[in-house]
Amino acid sequence: MALLRRLAVNAPRNVRVLSSAPSPRDDLDLNFNSPKDAFKSKKTSELVRAYFVYQICSVNWIVENNAMLMRRLRQVVGQRLFEIIMKATFYGQFVAGEDQNTIRPTIDRLHSFGVKSILDYSVEEDISQEEAEKREVSASISESGDKQEEGQLKQYHVEQRFADRRYKVTSARTYFYLNEASCEKNMEAFLKSIDAVAGVTKSTGLMAVKLTALGRPQLLLQLSEVIMKARNYMQQIGGGTGNVLTHHKTIEDFQRYFGSHSNKPEVQEFMKKITSDKEGIVHLFPWSNILDKDMGLSDSFRVPDPKTGQMRRLISQISPKEEEMFRNMLRRLNHIIQAANEVDVRIMIDAEQTYFQPAISRICLEMMRRYNKDKFLVFNTYQTYLKNTYNEIVTDLEQAQRQNFYWGAKLVRGAYIEQERARAAAMGYEDPTCENIEATTTSFHKCLKEILSRAEQKGRLGIMVASHNEDTVRYAIQLMKEHNIKPDDKVVCFGQLLGMCDHITFPLGQAGYSAYKYVPYGPVLEVLPYLSRRANENRGFLVKIKKEKSLLLKEIARRIFTGQIFYKPNGKYTPV
Question: How many CB atoms lie within 10 A of CB 494?
Answer without folding.
Answer: 24
